[in-house]
């Protein structure tokens, strides 16, 4: 079965404490691993303001997971998102080769070093 690169971002309700948030993220990580996905990278973006209120909430905990998996895994992951009342919103996208290369460069810190160089020039 062909493996594809994906990126998923989900927003958890701001009513959770740190432990509950970590347990929820771990649950989704396990859904991926149980279904044959390889987690490449994770980022916890923390508590952020939403662009518009969702379920009368104006903030949420954002989390990003980049993974490589067979195509059927996305359906299982999104079903787990829909079943969990702690998830406010989620988005999963398939990455093409350019997005994969961009994410790899971003993880290696190439863009941060460029921004620092521009600050020194300016």
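Sequence proposed for the structure above (122 residues):
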């Amino acid at each position: 079965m062909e493996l594809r690169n994906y990126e998923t971002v989900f927003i958890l309700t701001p009513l959770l404490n740190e432990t509950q948030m970590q347990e929820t993220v771990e649950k989704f990580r396990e859904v991926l691993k149980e279904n044959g996905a390889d987690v490449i990278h994770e980022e916890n973006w923390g508590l952020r303001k939403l662009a518009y209120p969702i379920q009368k909430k104006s903030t949420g905990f954002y989390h990003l997971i980049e993974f490589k998996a067979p195509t059927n895994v996305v359906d299982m992951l999104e079903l787990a998102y829909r079943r969990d009342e702690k998830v406010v919103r989620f988005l999963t996208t398939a990455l093409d080769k350019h997005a994969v290369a961009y994410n790899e460069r971003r993880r290696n810190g190439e863009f941060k070093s460029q921004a620092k160089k521009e600050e020194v020039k300016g």
